[in-house]
Amino acid sequence: MSAASVTPVDLSITPRDRRFAREARPGRWWHGGNPYATAFYNALSATFPKGEAFFVEAVRNHREGAPAKLAEEIKGFTTQEAIHSREHDMFNKAVIEAGYDLGPLEARVQFRLDFIRSKPPIASLASTMALEHFTAIFAHELLADPRHLAGAEPEAQALWRWHSIEEIEHKGVAYDTWLHATRHWPRPKRWKVKAKVMLLATRNFTLDRTLGAIELLRQDGITGARAWFGLLWFMWVQPGMMRKIFSAWAKFFLPGFHPWNEDDRHLIVAYEAEAALGRESERKVRRAA
């Protein structure tokens, strides 16, 4: 496993136990009054409580015998993901309070997870590895291009940016756990399985999140061509998250791929510097009051 892993030796996975959407509850169209942007991110958030609990379960099931460094990283990963589940559960409650029914979206997530759990445990780990790559490249793009959250309410922005830096920080854990669990597999078999799983995960992820957002738009009274055009324009054209992550997604299939082939911890450094300034400004305001 260690020969194939390029996870930085000085990487520290640090859970940041923050709380969002308690006092400042997101409005119905919290993303700049844009129903399409709001529907896209709400559909994504609806997956996280169940999905990230599934990721934790899948990785933990394969930690036995892991090298000490990986075992420590798994511990940090599971703590971060548990906090993410808690915070998106709270965010989703605010979405429900704003008038949306997330039931159909959550049922679809449960259907997918039940199907994967019906397979051997390695299937859950492979799915986690693929979906963690998805979340990592989403996180990178979201932090690298401020247009993705432009106009969103501050509390919602804070949640998504916080989540993104931790997804970058632990982006190699599921992959390294996969390398450890399949260390006795021939390379062609390992590549074939991971490629097939990524293609299936991509199809299901894209289909389910799109249909989930369309359902939320329907609940807003936005249907038909208007719903589809507005949503697909936001997803694929402007700001075009799905289009912009394509090259990073495709790298998954290259020989020698590893999530840490690109060290993007500068995005975490920039976030933490900005967060520190924000905290200092809040302290000054409180002292002045």
TrEMBL record:
Pfam families recorded: Metal_hydrol (PF10118)
GO molecular function, one term: hydrolase activity
UniProt entry keywords in alphabetical sequence: Hydrolase
Cited InterPro entries: UCP07580
Protein name, UniProt field: Metal-dependent hydrolase
